[in-house]
Design goal:
Blueprint: H1 3-20, H2 26-45, H3 47-71, H4 90-96, E1 107-110, E2 117-122, E3 125-131, E4 141-148, E5 151-158, H5 160-165
Parallel strand pairs: 3-5
Antiparallel strand pairs: 1-2, 1-4, 2-3, 4-5
Helix pairs in contact: 1-2, 1-3, 2-3
Length: 166
């Protein structure tokens, strides 16, 4: 009478082990065999006992699997399986933020050659920008013509050599 309980409990325990260790289904096969054996022995004792063991497995398997997956990230050997959230500096967080639409029509200076993408400085704020396909030299003045999401489109206002000739 106790053997069906032991087999069903063993089945639940082996299902938990399947979560923690890669066995390519071998542990699952063992768990199913233990469960079926426990149910068969329970039905040999009485029908109600057999249905009770089926109910224990139907309710118990999802519960123990849920607990196993909750416990898995806490175990030392499994911590490497999960990605950690990136730790960003304030500058990285600021650079990753979507540019505000207030940049529309702002004048800035290209801090890198824009071919067609690069960086421009608007006040003291560096912004990743893109041109409409033209090459803009470093140091040229640029104006924001469009801001869509995180895409800032600029155009040439004043080439750097034109300013030096005046």
């Amino acid at each position: 009478m106790i053997l069906p309980i032991v087999l069903v409990a063993g089945s639940l325990a082996v299902f938990v082990l399947e979560v923690f260790f890669v066995s390519f289904g071998a542990l699952t096969a063992i768990a199913v065999a233990l469960g079926v054996g426990g149910i068969a022995l329970a039905f040999g004792v009485s029908t109600a006992y057999g249905w009770t063991m089926i109910g224990v497995l139907v309710v118990g398997i999802p519960i123990v699997l849920r607990l196993a997956f909750k416990l898995l990230p806490l175990l030392p050997f499994a911590r490497g399986f999960y990605l950690r959230a990136p730790q960003l500096t304030d500058a990285e967080r600021h650079a990753a933020a979507a540019p505000e639409t207030e940049l529309k029509d702002a004048i800035g200076q290209a801090t890198s050659q824009l071919r067609p993408a690069g960086t421009a400085l608007f006040g003291d704020r560096p912004v990743q920008v893109v041109t409409e396909g033209t090459l803009i030299e470093r140091g040229a003045r640029v104006r924001v013509v469009d801001v869509t999401g995180n895409r800032v489109v600029v155009e040439l206002v004043d080439p750097p050599d034109a300013r030096s000739n005046n």
